[in-house]
């Protein structure tokens, strides 16, 4: 049987006022039920991340502090989902994955964490992927804010390309650690062009084994990190990255939900993302060609 798209969601992710993002997953996983019934995706309940793995990227002080917070369980389940998704996609047990995340993400460094994310998702995932035999991991961060925690944890790691779209232009470690200033008033087309130029182009040269994507939608109009993007931007972004993953790393692509508090946007873009992840390579390319032809008319 063909490997399917994994959707990692825990029932405890809904009905709680998660820091920064609130209860934006209140209608999940129900809004994904058609895709799951059609067999396009498989719903997987994540398990907590083990302490020994968390301690590979965080200090004991940080872990002790976060364990005392009400959101610890959600954060740990989010990291657990991200790690399991990455390993299963790497092994080919899943074709790709969408990982729901609360209280965990890109602002968690070795000894500090803030901004709604109190444990690192990608630090532990990279640790496990390298243990599993992967040699190169490409990370794309399109949340509105700079992924400071991820950058701190991954800095100096030559197995990782980390490209973060935020508010600064910076190229470090010979082009392996990159920030791109997207400005506060951009457009869907302009942002996508920057992703092509600064991430897709670098990813083709880097030839990763897998792509991990922190897909915040706080960049959407009316959200707390508003950069002027419309809801239709996000499926186009996923299509672009998926076709790159299909070309360079066997389609191995893991999306982690990042910032953004608009539940209405989440309810549209995440089902669309799963639909795109589940579509065969050719369908994505044809959709892009039709779009390009449409633009010429
Ligand atoms: Zn953000
Ligand atoms: Zn950045």
Describe, in plain words, how this protein is organized in 3D.
It is a single chain. The protein is an alpha/beta fold. Helices cover 41% and strands 15% of the residues. The protein contains 10 helices and 9 strands. The protein has a 9-stranded mixed β-sheet, sandwiched between helices. Strand 8, helix 8 and strand 9 form a beta-alpha-beta unit. The longest helix is centred in the first third of the chain and has 20 residues. The model has no long low-confidence stretch (mean pLDDT 95). It binds zinc ion (ZN) (2 copies).
Q: Assign a percent range to the helix content.
A: 40-55%
Apparent shape: globular
Bound molecules: zinc ion
Strand order of the largest sheet: 2-1-3-9-8-4-5-7-6
Structural class: alpha/beta
The averaged pLDDT comes out at: 95
Query: How many strand segments?
Result: 9
How many helices? The count is 10
**How are helices and strands ordered from N to C?**
EHEHHHEHEHEEEHEHEHH
Strand content: 15-25%
- Alpha-carbon distance between the two ends: 41 Å
What integer value in Å does the Rg equal? 17 Å
Outline the biggest β-sheet: 9 strands, mixed
The low-confidence parts are none
């Amino acid at each position: 049987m063909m490997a399917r798209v994994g959707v990692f969601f825990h029932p405890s992710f809904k009905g709680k006022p998660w820091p920064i993002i609130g209860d934006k997953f209140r209608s999940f996983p129900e809004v994904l039920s058609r895709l799951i019934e059609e067999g396009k995706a498989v719903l997987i309940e994540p398990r907590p991340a083990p302490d020994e793995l968390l301690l590979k990227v965080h200090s004991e002080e940080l872990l002790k502090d976060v364990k005392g917070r009400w959101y610890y369980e959600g954060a740990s389940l989010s990291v657990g989902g991200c790690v399991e998704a990455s390993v299963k996609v790497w092994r080919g047990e899943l074709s790709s994955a969408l990982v729901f995340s609360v209280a965990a993400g890109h602002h968690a460094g070795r000894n500090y964490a803030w901004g709604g994310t109190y444990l690192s998702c990608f630090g532990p995932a990279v640790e496990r992927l390298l243990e599993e035999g992967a040699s190169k991991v490409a990370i794309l961060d399109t949340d509105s804010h700079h992924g400071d925690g991820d950058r701190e944890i991954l800095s100096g790691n030559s197995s990782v390309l980390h490209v973060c779209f935020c508010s600064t232009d910076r190229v470090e470690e010979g082009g392996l650690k990159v920030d791109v200033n997207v400005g506060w008033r951009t457009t869907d087309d302009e942002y996508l062009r920057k992703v092509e130029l600064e991430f897709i182009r670098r990813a083709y040269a880097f030839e990763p084994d897998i792509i991990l994507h922190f897909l915040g939608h706080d960049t959407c109009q009316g959200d707390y990190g508003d950069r002027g993007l419309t809801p239709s931007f996000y499926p186009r972004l996923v299509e672009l990255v998926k076709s790159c993953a299909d070309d360079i790393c066997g389609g191995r692509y893991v999306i982690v939900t990042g910032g953004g508090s608009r539940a209405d946007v989440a309810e549209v873009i995440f089902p669309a993302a799963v639909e795109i992840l589940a579509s065969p390579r050719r369908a994505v390319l044809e959709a892009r060609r039709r779009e390009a032809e449409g633009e010429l008319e």
